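Field reference: sequence -> structure
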Amino acid sequence: MTIAAWARTNKRTKIRTWDVKWAILHILIIFLSVFIYLWLSLQDLQLGYRIAEAIQIQKRLKEENQRLQLEWTHLTSPSSLQKQAEKLGLQKPTQFVKLP
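Structure field:
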């Protein structure tokens, strides 16, 4: 009978050990899930900041591009070129030579 009593307690111990292992496994899965969720949330937040920064840079570069295009248009306009040529003392050519 002592063997039967030992077998029953051993069986209960195995069941309890198995329950503890499952509980630990579930806790680890929950912990890992929470960790992954927090990590992904942090990545999402950082990506949002990087996107906002990129949008600001894009806006600034578009404004600068427009300003430079306006300046280029002004500097290459015939009236502006004529004024610069007069400042440098250049004159309109009076003679034209046609090359063969």
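Note: The mean pLDDT is 87.
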